[in-house]
Design brief:
Blueprint (H helix, E strand, L loop, with lengths): L8 E10 L2 E7 L5 E7 L6 E7 L9 E8 L3 E9 L4 E4 L49 E11 L2 E5 L5 E17 L10 E5 L3
Length: 196
């Protein structure tokens, strides 16, 4: 897709709002900007990513957990609840606690001879969930919360594995709150996905 719109969607700053159409300016890694139009429909789901607490998480919530691998599971440094179809937050990449789709963590450089796999394919010799060679260290899991207790969460992944997630007092929690199109204003940073 165009710069700032990996796959089907857009990520950037809202520069205009006209009815159900948002104008979004995206800037790629080289500093080039692209202006995109995002059309909201009656079916558009709009959420805002906000700082939350462990108490905001419940059984059934979908989460992405980032942290350090442990023998018992993952010691979380960040838990992001929910996914967004059209979300906005205050900042650039990483606003809302997650990188925009297709973005690499700051400082990550793939090996010089790396070739991306075909769309939808895993690199040769890897399975879903494997850490790519050269990826930053740390634990990662995504799935639905199946249990909570004083020390953390149990997350069930898409393939049915259950992962114990421990949360320290310094772990960040990001939650999604439902909003309306009227809540989006010029200057907000959004991530939008859908048909192009």
């Amino acid at each position: 897709g165009p710069a700032g719109a990996p796959g089907r969607g857009a990520f950037g700053e809202v520069t205009a709002v006209a009815g159900t159409t948002l104008t979004v300016e995206s800037t790629d890694g080289s500093g080039s900007t692209t202006t995109l139009s995002v059309e909201a429909t009656a079916d558009t789901v709009i959420t805002e990513s906000l700082e939350g607490t462990v108490a905001d998480l419940a059984v059934g919530d979908s989460v992405v957990v980032i942290g350090e691998d442990t023998e018992a599971g993952v010691a979380a440094t960040s838990v992001v609840e929910g996914g967004t179809a059209l979300g906005f937050g205050g900042g650039g990449p990483g606003a809302g606690g997650a990188l925009p789709e297709g973005a690499a963590p700051e400082g990550f450089e793939p090996p010089a001879d790396a070739q991306p796999p075909a769309e939808g394919e895993m690199p040769d010799g890897t399975d879903a969930g494997d850490r790519p060679e050269g990826a930053p260290p740390g634990g990662f899991t995504a799935g639905d919360i199946v249990a909570t207790d004083a020390s953390g969460l149990t997350v069930e992944t898409e393939d049915g594995d259950q992962v114990q997630v421990t949360l320290s007092s310094s772990a960040t929690v990001t939650v999604s709150v439902e909003r309306s199109l009227a809540d989006i204003a010029v200057g907000d940073t959004i991530r939008a996905s859908g048909e192009t």
